[in-house]
Amino acid sequence: MEHIINCKGLKCPQPVINTKKYFDSIEEGTATVVVDNEVSKNNVCKFAKNNSFTAKVEQKEDLFYITIKKDASNCELCESNQQKLTIVISNNKLGLGDDELGTTLMKSYLYALSESEYLPTNLIFLNGGVKLTVEGSDCIDNLKVLDKKGVNIYSCGTCLDFYGLKEKLSVGEITNMYDIVEKMNSSDKTIKL
């Protein structure tokens, strides 16, 4: 019997994460993901394509049924020598525009990152980004998951001092600009958000 991954009513990135979790748990096999919107359908299909799985989509009324097949012989394995990635987060919101939306997007980004198979080596928080690493932040749980998975989490000490938050740091460690520069320069790739 085919496995059903019911993602009706779930917002992105949850349908992709639920799909990934299931396919990570099996060597090979087939499952049908059920979603109720075009964006989720497209994102689940991209996930399948990026992992060399086959995907077939059927629409029935307002629902999309995405049948995905994982064949162990076609799956590409992660390179054992994954590049060193540093992500620099300089704000507690993601993107420009509406602050409420930016806060929601940052929380969603960190959640998706915590569920990702490919994790950064370092997460560096600067300026307003340090507000994400202190008690009371909506992102603490996701950052703690990343910390447990071995991601190095650093907050700028000067920035924590500026905002009066040094005593409230809840995850990771305090660092300085020299160390930040060294980590960025020694990484194979650095992304700034």
Automatic annotation (TrEMBL):
This is Sulfurtransferase-like selenium metabolism protein YedF. PROSITE patterns: UPF0033. Residues 5-29 form the UPF0033 domain. Keywords: Transferase. The gene is yedF. InterPro entries: DsrEFH-like, Se_metab_YedF, Sulphur_relay_DsrE/F-like, TusA-like, TusA-like_sf. Belongs to the sulfur carrier protein TusA family. GO terms for molecular function: transferase activity. CDD domains: SirA_like_N.
